[in-house]
């Protein structure tokens, strides 16, 4: 089973940028859909972005569209989330996840990385 390790979280002022990375323990290209999710204190985990294994198409939550960009480095078995124009409401623990081909739900999760945006 694939293992996922996130990095790149931290504290940033509103309007700033951060880049999150997720390293996978095995080849992800054409094997897994990859996603980013986040969970703020007292709230449920929510979808942020994903990239499809089949054609590399990306999708974003409305709340981050135009500000966040997800990408995949097939050679390094990594995905990244470039976050710009950050807002205090983006503060959350961000999780990387993988969904096996044919699976309905994301079945592998990283441990999460904290992103804090100060106003």
Largest beta-sheet details: 7 strands, mixed
| Overall 3D shape | globular
Question: What fraction of the residues are assigned to beta strands by DSSP?
Answer: over 45%
Distance between the ends? 40 Å
* SSE-based structural type: mainly beta
User: What proportion of the residues is helical, as a percent range?
Assistant: under 10%
Q: What is the overall number of helices?
A: 0
What do the pLDDT scores average to? Answer: 95
Kindly provide the radius of gyration, computed on alpha-carbon positions and rounded to a whole number of angstroms: 13 Å
Order of helices and strands: EEEEEEEEEEE
Number of strands: 11
Weakly predicted, low-confidence segments: none
How would you characterize this protein structure?
With 119 residues, the protein is mainly beta. It has no helices and 11 strands. 0% of the residues lie in helices and 51% in strands. A hairpin with a 4-residue loop joins β7 (68-73) and β8 (78-83). The mean pLDDT is 95.
